[in-house]
Amino acid sequence: MRSLGFDVRAAADASEAAELLAAVPASRRVALVDPRFVGHVHALRLGLTDPRFAVATVPGALTAQPEARDALLRALRRAVAAVGAESPVAPAGAEPVAEDRTVPGRLAVALDAEGTAVQRPELGSLTAEVPTGPEDRSAAQAAVDAVDGEAVRLRSAVKAHDGFFTTFFISPYSRYIARWCARRGFTPNQVTTASLITALVAAGSAATGTRGGYVAAGVLLLLSFVLDCTDGQLARYSLQYSTMGAWLDATFDRAKEYAYYAGLALGAARGGDDVWVLALGAMVLQACRHVVDFSFNEANHDAVSNTSPTAALSDRLDSVGWTVWLRRMIVLPIGERWAMIAVLTAVTTPRIVFYALLVGCALAACYTTAGRLLRSLTRKAQRTDRAAVALADLADSGPLAQAVAGVVRRPRGGFTAPLLALVGAVVIVTTALFAPYGSWLTVGAAAVYAVVSGLAVSRPLKGALDWLVPPVFRAAEYCTVLVLAARSDVPHAVPAAFGLVSAVAYHHYDTVYRIRGGTGAPPRWLVRTIGGHEGRTLVVAVLAAVLTRSSGFTTALTALAAAVALVVLVESIRFWVSSSAPAVHDEGELA
């Protein structure tokens, strides 16, 4: 216990344990451990030191974070009142003590009953027991000696579900790098920062536009990915989860990838090839893929009767090993994606890299979206109010859409919301593509889009396909900015649009990870300040009409990008370093 950072105190009975707990400063974690506990240190580490959970238990041990201290103390005092002040902390008995027969086990059951969630980590082959006699203790000790706890700790540092490339080409050695880092006192945040710096150096190498620079960029990008895997493995190995780590890990992957796209585009430009449209297109496609995943998961993870024939088929396929890896590779997760980018950067040109990326991501998007559509149409699920709120937050509706939603209600119907969102998206993107550039028709289409998007969110998003609304809005906004910048023929307009979409995409990812952490979306004042998706789309359409063929369009896009980035980053940093941020380390999605 001392090796895990606890100040150990012995209590003769439950009454004394309650007194000792009450004397501990309110800001500190506490733990109750049966003195007869036998098990691996890592079993205690998993049960008693993970900062993500307010209360956690393993057989014979229980821990509580400051926010759950009062609940634990109340439960312990009730136990004292029920069985007497002199009751032992470890009740005696002739039979082996079951998990719910020890004082920590009984307190865990009591906390569960009163509504305090108790985490019970999977121990696998690790031993955690409370034997009552010499024979039981000998058997438990033999079980401890038979298992290499350090080997289990190394295995548990690796995510249970990961991509093919990461599982077979990175994790076999990156886990040992994580252990090396842990033994030398490095933190996951430091490794995450090293990964970001390495990726930025890779982007700078790609921006040189030379073959040597491209080769160096590919190697450095792979090294950055190794470090990206190592930081999560280090967090799991040493259980160093933190609020700052959650923020860094959630945002740096996108920052690294998009910075690398920009580096490739700059390098191509040095060689006389303008691929900024392809770079921005790749970023738009990747961001839309992610929001499809996020929206679908938020809409369905707590749905009632959440089953379907498609899901059942997927579960059956998971029992066949090769289909699991094939399906994980088809979605082009980050490991496969970065490996492809790195190799193609080293041996081909930026244009070919972006072509391959666009084709691969498009096929992956079609595969995953089709599967989600089939699941949604075939399952009989009732969406919860929480899911509707999450989808509304992901929609990122600004003042214009909210004003429309407050005045007019869309007709009831299962597919009305996604159809309205799709109609609005088609109107604005098609007009931006085919209307004369700079025409006020595009401004009118943006106004129609604002009205229709307001109608789409005017009722709670609980329909079977309502999870499509946020990704449709993302595609409409990002594609409109891309199209108008590409058609402007103004120097550097597309790079400026790249910056604008990067800033807005950061806001959308920040929203996702706040919701995942259980703290809700960013404050409404932030969404109002940056206009919402429909407001920004309208502003860009007006700028294109007013500043037609003028370098002022590039300047305006740059200023808009800087303003959005400033407001979003300041609020995001304030939140993620605050005490209200969730202490979770992002396990990540395969894509």
pLDDT < 50 runs, ≥5 residues: 85-100, 584-591
Shape: globular
State the secondary-structure class.
Answer: mainly alpha
Number of helices: 24
What's this model, at a glance?
By secondary structure, the chain is mainly alpha-helical. It has helices at about 15-25, 40-50, 70-85, 105-115, 135-145, 150-155, 165-185, 190-205, 210-240, 245-270, 275-300, 310-315, 320-330, 335-345, 350-380, 385-395, 400-405, 415-435, 440-455, 470-485, 495-515, 525-530, 530-545, 550-575; strands at about 30-35, 40, 55-60, 60-65, 130. The longest helix is centred in the middle third of the chain and has 29 residues, at about 350-380.
Comma- or semicolon-separated keywords:
two-stranded antiparallel sheet, mainly alpha, three-stranded antiparallel β-sheet, 591 residues
Question: How would you explain this protein's 3D organization?
Answer:
- With 591 residues, the chain is mostly helical.
- Helix content is 66%, strand content 3%.
- The protein contains 24 helices and 5 strands.
- It has a 3-stranded antiparallel sheet, with helices on both faces. Strands 2-5 form a two-stranded antiparallel ribbon.
- A hairpin with a 2-residue loop joins strand 3 and strand 4 (61-64).
- Helix 1 runs antiparallel to helix 3 and helix 8 packs parallel to helix 10 (243-270).
